[in-house]
Amino acid sequence: MVTPGEVPTPSGRHLRVLRISHSGVVTSWRERERDLRRRGVDLTLVTAVRWDEGGAPVPFEAAGDDFVVPVRTFGTHPNLFVFDPRPLWRLLGDDRWDLVDLHEEPFGLAVAEFLVLRWIRRRRTPFLVCSAQNLDKRYPPPFRWIERRSLAGAAGAYTCNTEAGEILRRKGLHGELELLPLGVDVARFRPVERRPPAGRLRVGFVGRLFPVKGAHVLLAAAARDPRLDVDIYGAGPEAAALAAQAAELGVTDRVTFHGHADEPALPSVYPTFDVLAVPSIPVPGSLEQFGRAVVEGQAAGVPSVASASGALPDVVGGAGLLVPPGDPEALCDALVRLLEEPGLWTRLRDEGLASVGRYSWAGIAELQEDLYQRAVRRG
Question: What CATH architecture does domain 16-183+360-378 belong to?
Answer without folding.
Answer: 3-Layer(aba) Sandwich (3.40)
